[in-house]
């Protein structure tokens, strides 16, 4: 009843004018107006960011300020639209104007340059934006009928194991670039050195395992992924001098049993890419592959994360729908699924940036 009364009040133009005029409520009214405008204008902001990434604006400013002509030469973009873009980027704190015509990185632009995985995701988002041109058409279409679903071919096929290496290379590289953001977060949250052998399921080209190998030099390594992806992992491990330390198994976890022998199985940003039935089958397979006392570690961004609610159901909800598979899940939802698979009550290990990833650890009795 209180919320209904609140909504009736907020819908009143008279109340809105009064709140903006009264000194005690004016700061709140202005803050809420800014927040509402950001929701309305968010797509425009994302396109400013995408333009800056595609034109290399942030990268060109890595070594210091430049004039507008140096930053965006006329053959790249005419002076008038270039000025429009630079001012828009400055408003978003991607850039800042140091003098009459010298542009430098803003605080957010500098932070982005320190996260190459985020830059890769920004470029990749062009596919999502294309699907979102008509969001209702996207939501009404059969899952798997979008441009984003074609980018992730394993998500839109009944037989992921038949996807060849060429079709998986682009998304494997993207996952490798973005996984660097979370590997150290996970390894700081859970000490893997207490284990003897780890199996990373859906491990892509082995980015997480290579970070783990540095953290735990004595730990034996195993990776399980689709045949087309596993071949790329072999190349990356060989190049890193780890070919003799890792065992790579190719298969489809929806159809094939997981290799036994590991006392730690990791699922890093895997579950939220899949629908409920496939997730439950994967958790059951992990349970079957672990010995008594073995540990399953689940790491991914989760819905309902305090302070990052928009990331869950707003961003990942729409992204995964367009992808054609999966959905964001809350930590309690995942914990319940783990218990149904037979694991003891999972415990969360705190991470520094929960928006990027949260970690659940469950043990087989």
Q: Can you tell me the CATH superfamily of the largest domain? A: Vaccinia Virus protein VP39
Q: Would you count the extended β strands for me?
A: 9
The pLDDT mean sits at: 90
What is the number of helices?
Answer: 16
CATH domain fold name of the largest domain: Rossmann fold
CATH architecture of the largest domain: 3-Layer(aba) Sandwich
N-to-C SSE series?
HHHHHHEEHHHHHEHEHEEHEHHEE
Radius of gyration: 23 Å
End-to-end Cα distance, whole Å, is 47 Å
Instruction: Summarize the main sheet.
Output: 7 strands, mixed
Report the top-level CATH class of the largest domain: Alpha Beta
- Categorize the overall geometry: globular
Structural class: alpha/beta
Please indicate the count of domains: 2
Structure description:
There is one protein chain. This protein has helices spanning 2-10, 13-21, 26-54, 57-60, 68-71, 79-91, 107-113, 116-132, 135-140, 147-151, 165-189, 207-215, 227-239, 276-289, 309-323, 331-340; strands at 95-99, 102-105, 197-201, 220-225, 246-250, 264-268, 295-300, 347-349, 358-363. A hairpin with a 2-residue loop joins strand 1 (95-99) and strand 2. Helix 2 crosses helix 3 and helix 8 crosses helix 11. It contains 16 helices and nine strands. The relative contact order is 0.08.
